[in-house]
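User: Fold this one for me? It's Glutaminyl-peptide cyclotransferase.
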Amino acid sequence: MGRPARRPFVWPGAPLLALALLLAPAAVARVPVQDYEVVTAYPHDPTAFTEGLFVRDGALFESTGLYPSFLRQVELETGRVVRQRDLPTVYFGEGVAAIGERLFSLTWRNHLGFVWRLDDFSPMGAFSYPGEGWGLTTDGRRLVMSDGTDQIRFIDPDTFAETGRVAVTADGRPLDQINELEWVDGEILANIWQDSRIARIDPETGAVKAFIDLAALAPTGPEVDPNDDVANGVAWDAAARRLYVTGKRWPRLYEIRLKPLASAQ
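Assistant: Here's what I get for Glutaminyl-peptide cyclotransferase.
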């Protein structure tokens, strides 16, 4: 008579563990950090509390916060102010964008935006919106607006009606404090308030595809306020394919070139 077959040992908790593994959420890939190189550094007004930034025909346009806030057209290479309009002191300026010959600007807590003529900053109108105004950009057809939450709104530039919105997520979790915006090759680049990173956002899904960390560019010294003097300001020159970044009260504005993302291992 042969030896009886040995029965395998089965841990009593194995079925429960298997069930838990089946029900557990799938692991979410970490958002990669994209490297860059500095191409050129330009002078930037160290008193400018930068809120919005964009480039048109080689000229830099900037909006600032604090009181008074202002709109400026700036000569990129020298930092010289070509044109400026101060906002009434009841308004804290925020994001800015242009479509055609109209310049649109937001205010922080007044629920009010303004329309200006791009070539001379003369007033053309105003519009209202619920919640706070933070960042502003455009895809050429719509205004794209942030409000300090994880939400990005899409706004009709003629009626100012909200036509849609998307929630921003990173690693599968909501990402709030979305601030200054720039539309770049079908993506939204967004500063994050009090964070050195820029998020590359898919405008269809809201998912962050990569972060760009500007910590190495931030000014240092006893006069720097680490809470306020943070990275803010992204501008894309689509014609020249140049990307510019700066921060609140930073003495430099940088042209940077993004490096390809490393392949997944």
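One thing worth pointing out: The two ends are 55 Å apart (CA to CA).
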